[in-house]
Amino acid sequence: MDSGFTLRAPRNDKRRNPMPAILGTGEHRYRVVENFAKLPDGWQLTDVAAVAVDSLDRVYVFNRGAHPMVVLDREGNFLRSWGEGLFSRAHGLHIDADDNLYCTDDGDHTVRKCTSDGKVLLTIGIPAKPAPFMSGEPFHRCTHTALSPKGEIYVSDGYGNARVHKFTPDGKLIKSWGEPGTDPGQFNIVHNIATDSDGWVYVADRENHRVQVFNGEGKYETQWNNLHRPCALCCCGGRSPTFVIGELGPGLDINRNVPNLGPRLSIVDAKGNRIARLGGEEGPGVASGKFLAPHGIALDSKGDIYVGEVGVTNWATSFPDQEMPAVVRATRCLQKLERVRE
């Protein structure tokens, strides 16, 4: 599907967006790239649940539109799509060192390992057959994956469970941990998961407003606080990694218009100390420099950030009395933030 399409020309309305916004401070400043995704004419991404970047800086956009996996180059040009008829509801995406993609589908309760052109290599879970609600058995609306240094697969699970599962590289269950609640090692929507090169496991415990940290066997170590509904979680690599955390804005009518709650991105060090915060002071929006609902994050080799947002799903929560602009469903749920280099 690499040819035969007419690409939509990017719009440049200087009256509405006179200059691209710059977010952050100091060494962590990012310029919003306006109209990044250049899709075939008539295509829409709708919600972008997750993004990943491969070794060639190709951007994989796991979305809930008619073409679940859209592949772009780092300038936003359309390369191809795949996954039509395969996925039920895009949720999580992780890429390994060999450019294999781990696609988490919370609509049919599976994780599929795929090649970069969409060939399915492994399926974990039984499509369309969830485990009983809160049973602890995999899966009931699983959300995301991460890999150990040995290639073992961690799966956060998710909406209908409160568990982390650990599998062998070929998909055999090793162990599980977690239960519903607010104590250490308990979860209230285990929404995302990441690992580092030392094997630590980081879990976005969304509705408990924290990220919990475990060793590779599921032993609780610590937690990061001062977060608001952490939803996306990306480890930036290295021996002392930084992390980018996507935080959702308020989900309740009573605090919908309260400032300084997001949606936003926070950059933290390996101990969870905040280094920078991008956006979120004045709530959600479609203007340059604002977010709708950050749900997935990836970085390329240049340090640029790609943000997938579920702005279509979240629109009625954030803007119950406003009609959703057409651009939200088309391309606005994918943003690129280009690192400012002095």
Explain what the structure shows:
The strands form seven sheets. This protein has a five-stranded antiparallel sheet with strand order 1-2-27-26-25, with no helix packed on it. The protein is built from two helices and 27 strands. Helices cover 4% and strands 39% of the residues. A hairpin with a 4-residue loop joins strand 18 (201-205) and strand 19. It is globular. The N and C termini lie far apart (39 Å). It has 342 residues and is mainly beta. The protein has one domain (27-339): Neuraminidase.
**Count of distinct strands:** 27
Please work out how many helical segments DSSP would assign: 2
The ordered H/E elements are EEEEEEEEEEEEEEEEEEEEEEEEEEHHE
Q: Give a quick account of the main beta sheet: strands, pairing sense, barrel closure.
A: 5 strands, antiparallel
Strand numbers in spatial order across the main sheet? 1-2-27-26-25
User: Outline, from the CA principal axes?
Assistant: globular
CATH superfamily: TolB, C-terminal domain
CATH topology: Neuraminidase
The tally of domains stands at 1
Supply the CATH class. Mainly Beta
What's the end-to-end separation, in Å?
39 Å
Instruction: Please estimate the helix content.
Output: under 10%
The average pLDDT score comes to: 94
Query: How much of the polypeptide forms β-strand, as a percent range?
Result: 35-45%
**Cα-atom radius of gyration:** 19 Å
Question: What structural class do you assign from the helix and strand content?
Answer: mainly beta
Going by CATH, the architecture would be 6 Propeller
Show unreliable segments. Answer: 1-15
